[in-house]
């Protein structure tokens, strides 16, 4: 390990974290646990970052409400929305759909505040910016103060990317940061950008019987996922009246005059889409614009992101950056780990490197999860593999849950039968994947799944069935 960064009593604190999202929060608590004088600055009223305020937690709480209402109305089965149309089902109000969000975020925010307090982390309310490499100014309604720190951790996250000319008004044209302030459920929703945010929300609104049109400039969506998972996702979404316009770009976006106000999207191909609302989700950029990074001797890239080394150090050794502000993979799950590790590295505590295999969990309807390589990557790298598939419709727990379209696919090396990847689509996929993650990380493979016994009836049984399938193919 390289020499630890500066620790000196000449500063107000040993570590100052900017941002209370997953990355800043975990870094602050880890530093406090190491006995370091730690402070955390947050400019929002809600602690927890966009993860808790407008991102991960609100969207997943909303999804829970969608699932329970859509299940109740029988809308979650592929094709049902098309058959029943709007007439056959009750349209929920947005109040009904959003009521859980405020409760969950408020409770979670309190939990974070208590954790910081219990661990002796000083919470400073206000917006931080650099005065010099060891000094930050914090401005709030109460005024301006400066704080000096031996080490600084930048965990400021991101804001939605908005190309010039996109008239986001938080009413008709929205980003994911405004979406849960919708005042009524749209009949037609246009989604620009089919990344994880666009796909998750498009599929949730489609499950509420909203007609969704999704535009993405790429020809294939979610290219980092196994293609079979994306094909199944798109198949189910099409079954719920989602129209995909792929390989298409928006030339102009207007809000038409008159009531009700509607958005008009003019695509470069000449197509025109009219919608009650537009979700603009074409990626996010680092929220470094107001940090005055130049005073710290740092400069971000053209998407506001900071470059770091393997220990999350920026070009200035006592300044660390973690979470979404450093770019890929930009997940809450990884940000938590990065924050904790960075605090360990800053104080010279052995913590090992970041784990190699990171799980992907996409809370679309259907849910998708993955660990390890997708098939196309193995093919590209000429790695000989075999597949084993278990379909939920042939698994007792799948039948009990009424999910007959889910599946779990194992990819194993043809020669040594090592596990190379797991791809799951359907109910519980994001939880189920962690069995595969453990086996992959511990270097296990087909033999483990063939020998082990799972509770019955569970979705975990998919691993056994998929392993038997792969084994039969390898023996054929
Ligand atoms: C709609 C949506 C859904 C998502 N769903 C998932 C999911 O299901 N699973 C998952 O793993 N990830 C998900 N993510 C990603 C996840 O939210 C982020 O990866 C995570 O929040 C990043 O954490 P962070 O600590 O880097 O930053 P953030 O959570 O963005 O927090 C940064 C904090 O810094 C504060 N801040 C910024 N500048 C300053 C300043 N100058 N002074 C003081 N404070 C400042 C901000 O106010 C904010 O509170 C989702 C994101 C979105 C937008
Ligand atoms: N479940 C999860 O883990 C989860 C959920 C939501 C968000 N997130 C995180 O949030 C981050 C941001 O998500 P995102 O979906 O906004 O970004 P993204 O970068 O993942 O996707 C943006 C999409 O917009 C498309 N696009 C870009 N410009 C366009 C244009 N002008 N017209 C049409 N399409 C265009 C791109 O081709 C891409 O498919 C991601 O990094 C993701 O990791 C994670």
Could you describe the 3D structure shown?
It is a single chain. By secondary structure, the chain is α/β, with parallel strands linked by helices. The protein is 32% helix and 24% strand. The protein is built from 13 helices and 22 strands. It has helices spanning 22-33, 49-53, 56-72, 80-84, 94-118, 196-207, 227-239, 332-346, 375-380, 396-401, 429-441, 446-451, 461-475, and strands spanning 13-18, 38-42, 122-125, 127-132, 135-140, 143-154, 158-160, 173-174, 188-192, 211-216, 242-246, 250-256, 262-267, 272-275, 277-280, 284-286, 319-321, 360-362, 368-372, 385-391, 407-413, 419-425. The chain is globular and about 70 Å long. The protein starts with 12 loop residues before the first strand and ends with a helix. 49% of the residues are buried. Residues 1-6 and 81-87 have low confidence and may be disordered. Flavin-adenine dinucleotide binds next to helix 1, strand 2, helix 2, helix 3 and strand 4.
Short summary of the structure?
With 476 residues, this protein is of the alpha/beta class. Helices cover 32% and strands 24% of the residues.
What attributes characterize this protein structure?
disordered N terminus; binds nicotinamide-adenine-dinucleotide; binds flavin-adenine dinucleotide; 22 strands; 3 domains; NAD; Enolase-like, domain 1; Pyr_nucl-diS_OxRdtase_dimer; 476 residues; FAD/NAD(P)-binding domain; alpha/beta; seven-stranded mixed beta sheet
Beta-strand fraction estimate: 15-25%
- Rg computed from alpha carbons, rounded to a whole number of angstroms: 24 Å
CATH-level-4 superfamily name of the largest domain: FAD/NAD(P)-binding domain
CATH class of the largest domain: Alpha Beta
How much helix, percentage-wise, in residues? Answer: 25-40%
Cofactors, ions and other ligands in the entry = flavin-adenine dinucleotide, nicotinamide-adenine-dinucleotide
Mean pLDDT: 94
Binding site for NAD(+): 193-200, 283
Cofactor: FAD
Binding site for FAD: 60, 324
GO molecular function: dihydrolipoyl dehydrogenase (NADH) activity; flavin adenine dinucleotide binding; NAD(P)+ transhydrogenase (Si-specific) activity
């Amino acid at each position: 390990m390289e020499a630890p960064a500066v620790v000196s009593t000449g500063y107000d604190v040993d570590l100052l974290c900017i941002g209370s999202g997953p990355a800043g929060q975990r870094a602050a608590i880890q530093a406090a646990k190491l006995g370091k004088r730690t402070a955390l600055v947050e400019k929002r009223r809600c602690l927890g970052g966009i993860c808790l305020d407008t991102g991960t937690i609100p969207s997943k709480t909303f999804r829970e409400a969608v699932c329970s209402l859509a299940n109740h109305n029988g809308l979650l089965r592929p094709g049902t929305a098309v058959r029943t149309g709007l007439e056959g089902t009750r349209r929920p109000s947005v109040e009904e759909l959003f009521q859980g969000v405020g409760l969950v975020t408020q409770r979670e925010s309190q939990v974070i505040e208590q954790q910081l307090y219990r661990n002796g982390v000083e919470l400073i309310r206000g917006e931080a910016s650099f005065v010099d490499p060891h000094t930050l100014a914090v401005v709030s309604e109460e005024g301006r103060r400066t704080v000096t720190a031996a080490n600084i951790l930048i965990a400021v996250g991101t804001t939605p990317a908005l190309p010039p000319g996109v008239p986001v008004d938080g009413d008709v044209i929205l980003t994911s940061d405004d979406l849960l302030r919708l005042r009524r459920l749209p009949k037609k929703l246009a989604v620009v950008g089919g990344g994880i945010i666009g796909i998750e929300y498009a599929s949730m609104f489609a499950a509420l019987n909203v007609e969704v049109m999704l535009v993405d400039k790429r020809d294939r969506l979610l290219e980092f996922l196994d293609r079979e998972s994306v094909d199944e996702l798109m198949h189910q979404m099409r079954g719920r009246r989602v129209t995909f316009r792929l390989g298409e770009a928006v030339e102009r976006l207007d809000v038409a005059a008159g009531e009700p106000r509607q958005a008009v999207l003019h695509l470069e191909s000449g197509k025109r889409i009219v919608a009650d609302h537009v979700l603009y989700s074409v990626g996010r950029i680092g929220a470094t614009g107001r940090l005055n990074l130049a005073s710290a001797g740092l400069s971000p890239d053209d998407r506001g992101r900071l470059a770091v080394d393997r220990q999350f150090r920026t070009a200035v050794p006592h300044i660390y950056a973690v979470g979404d502000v450093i770019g890929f993979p930009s997940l809450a799950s990884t940000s938590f780990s990065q924050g904790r590790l960075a605090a360990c590295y800053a104080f010279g505590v052995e913590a090992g490197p970041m784990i190699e295999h990171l799980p992907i969990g996409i809370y679309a309807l259907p849910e998708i999860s993955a660990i390890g390589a997708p098939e196309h990557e193995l093919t590209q790298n000429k790695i000989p593999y075999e597949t084993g598939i278990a379909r939920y419709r042939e698994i007792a727990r799948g039948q009990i849950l009424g999910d007959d379209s889910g599946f779990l696919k194992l990819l194993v090396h043809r020669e040594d039968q090592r596990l190379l990847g797991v791809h799951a689509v359907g109910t519980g996929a994001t939880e189920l994947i962690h069995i595969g993650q453990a086996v992959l990380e511990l270097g296990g493979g087909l033999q483990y799944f063939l020998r082990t016994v799972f509770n019955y009836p569970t979705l975990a049984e998919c691993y056994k069935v998929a392993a038997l399938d792969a084994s039969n193919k390898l023996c054929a």
